[in-house]
């Protein structure tokens, strides 16, 4: 029998409270946190049976089949409602009476109910041999599967008898063998079971790996909570707490993956937040507020000055700097300077041309350089690069290549185009000291063609004045007058102008 929620004395006190007129059913029920219907049942039982109706039974009540039939007939004859009959005959609950009525209406024979409490209790269980279990099962089957009487006869529990009979019917005598603590090895099972076991093992391994990856990402995630305190492993503790709360993963497994003890985690969980950490939370809020207010222009020095000035505090710059780094807040008024790696030229040449920009015949002196042009794809800036070779005799363009990449291929293709147009030319070839012109590969091309190389001095763009002047003419007369919105449009404009220039 289930243990009552309330004691008999407490229930009697509520009944007497109602009968004395201290409140209605609803008022008393709400004041004491019980149902109104339950209170009505207590009052009805008290009026029928008195205080004896609240005496708690040691076990389930016994009901004879004659008693069951009389209660059912009392309801059917109209001697009272179901609640009235339950109260009058002190039946445990109305559901019990409803069950009897259903059996009666379905023409099911009502049987005596005399519970033997001990046969349902776990304390009644005892160890039995295989032969004893077989005897018990045969006795139960020969007596129409009367599990209760069989359990009482052999001093075992009801559940034991029921389980043995079920196994005996399914597997015969082998089903009665006690297999507790025995697990078959992979060699003892068939191929299908072996495959199932392997599948389960692989599935467990995969799930554990996925959990581990998720957990480690939680620790290393850039969106993790900011570390405002000085406590070691604070980020790890927070990740353990989140994974346990969100995924239900065990604390022992989570701690084991990162090599910390459960005791240290629980100590962190129950810790008192230090005063410095609470203060850091306030400072962090101020930093975020002032960063927005001043449009992200404050570095850690000016941030410290403003916080101390407006809040009458004396926080150190180091502290503000550390918290700003944790919050990923920094000044944006100065962009970082690009770091250029100084390249060592493979080989350079003397300035043989020496600003001698006049030539007596074609293909005597060539000058070359590269320049860039910008065009816009929406708000995005794109670039095109132009490499050209100029003949100093008449300032004409010998060859040119337009490309989207500034690389060695651009220079090499321009040179090869010039050679195809002038295969017998052996001019003095002048350029600046760009890495394309100082490379050994380009110098090898010049040597094969029988050309002498000349280079401008470092920082003297005037040493290559004719080509620089041509760039200025192109950009002034054609490029600067228009805004180009496509690569093809810009290419076409450059091609047209160079054709016009050479006419």
Account of the protein in words:
The protein has helices at residues 8-19, 25-32, 36-49, 65-76, 82-88, 94-105, 130-142, 147-154, 158-171, 191-220, 234-247, 251-258, 262-269, 275-293, 300-311, 317-327, 408-421, 435-438, 440-448, 465-479, 487-502; strands at residues 365-377, 380-391, 396-403, 428-431, 452-455. With 503 residues, the protein is an alpha/beta fold. A 5-stranded mixed β-sheet has the order 3-2-1-4-5, sandwiched between helices. The mean pLDDT is 83.
Strand percentage: 5-15%
Helical content class? 40-55%
Q: Helix tally?
A: 21
Q: How many strand segments? A: 5
- Which stretches are low in confidence, meaning pLDDT under 50 for 5 or more residues running? none
Q: Would you tell me the structural class of the helices and strands?
A: alpha/beta
CATH class of the largest domain: Alpha Beta
In total, the number of domains comes to: 5
State the end-to-end CA separation.
114 Å
As for the CATH topology of the largest domain, it is Nucleotidyltransferase, domain 5
The description of the largest β-sheet is:
5 strands, mixed
CATH A-level architecture of the largest domain: 2-Layer Sandwich
Mean pLDDT: 83
- The general outline is elongated
> What strand order characterises the main sheet?
3-2-1-4-5
Can you tell me the CATH superfamily of the largest domain? Ribonuclease H-like superfamily/Ribonuclease H
What is the CA-based Rg, rounded? Answer: 49 Å
Element pattern in H and E: HHHHHHHHHHHHHHHHEEEHEHHEHH
């Amino acid at each position: 029998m289930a243990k009552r929620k309330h004691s008999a004395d407490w229930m009697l006190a509520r009944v007497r409270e109602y009968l004395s007129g201290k409140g209605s059913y609803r008022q008393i029920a709400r004041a004491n946190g019980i149902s109104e219907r339950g209170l009505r049942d207590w009052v009805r039982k008290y009026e029928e049976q008195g205080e004896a109706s609240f005496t708690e039974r040691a076990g389930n009540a016994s009901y004879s089949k004659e008693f069951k039939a009389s209660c059912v007939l009392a309801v059917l004859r109209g001697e009272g409602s179901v609640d009235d009959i339950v109260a009058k005959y002190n039946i445990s609950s109305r559901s019990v009476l409803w069950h009897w009525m259903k059996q009666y209406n379905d023409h099911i024979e009502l049987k005596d109910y005399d519970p033997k409490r001990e046969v349902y209790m776990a304390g009644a269980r005892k160890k039995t041999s295989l032969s004893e279990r077989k005897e018990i099962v045969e006795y139960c089957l020969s007596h129409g599967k009367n599990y209760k009487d069989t359990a009482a006869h052999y001093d075992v529990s009801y559940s034991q008898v029921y389980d043995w009979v079920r196994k005996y019917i399914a597997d015969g005598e082998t089903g009665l063998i006690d297999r507790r603590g025995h697990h078959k090895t992979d060699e003892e099972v068939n191929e299908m079971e072996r495959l199932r076991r392997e599948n389960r093992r692989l599935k467990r391994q995969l799930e554990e790996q996925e959990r581990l990856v998720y957990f480690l990402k939680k620790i290393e995630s850039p969106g993790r909570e900011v570390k405002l305190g000085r406590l070691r492993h604070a980020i790890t503790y927070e990740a353990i707490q989140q994974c346990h709360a969100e995924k239900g993963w065990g604390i022992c497994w989570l701690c084991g993956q990162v090599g910390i003890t459960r005791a240290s985690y629980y100590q962190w969980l129950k810790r008192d937040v230090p005063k410095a950490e609470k203060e850091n939370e306030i400072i962090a809020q101020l930093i975020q507020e002032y960063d927005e207010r001043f449009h992200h222009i404050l570095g850690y020095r000016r941030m410290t000055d403003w916080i101390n000035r407006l809040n009458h505090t004396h926080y150190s710059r180091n502290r503000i700097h550390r918290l700003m780094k944790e919050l990923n807040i920094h000044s944006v008024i100065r962009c970082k300077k690009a770091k250029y790696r100084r390249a060592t030229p493979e080989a350079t040449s003397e300035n043989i041309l020496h600003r001698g920009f006049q030539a007596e015949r074609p293909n005597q002196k060539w000058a070359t350089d590269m320049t860039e042009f910008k065009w816009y794809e929406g708000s995005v800036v794109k670039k095109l690069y132009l490499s050209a070779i100029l003949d100093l005799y008449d300032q004409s363009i010998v060859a040119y290549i337009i490309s989207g990449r500034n690389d060695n291929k651009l220079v090499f293709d321009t040179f090869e185009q010039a050679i195809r147009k002038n295969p017998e030319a052996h001019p003095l070839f002048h350029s600046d000291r760009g890495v394309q012109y100082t490379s050994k590969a380009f110098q090898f091309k010049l040597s094969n063609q029988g050309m002498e190389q000349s280079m401008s001095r470092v920082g003297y763009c005037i040493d290559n004045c004719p080509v620089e002047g041509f760039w200025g003419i192109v950009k002034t007369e054609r490029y600067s007058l228009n805004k180009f919105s496509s690569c093809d449009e810009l290419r076409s404009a450059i091609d047209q102008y160079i054709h016009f220039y050479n006419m």
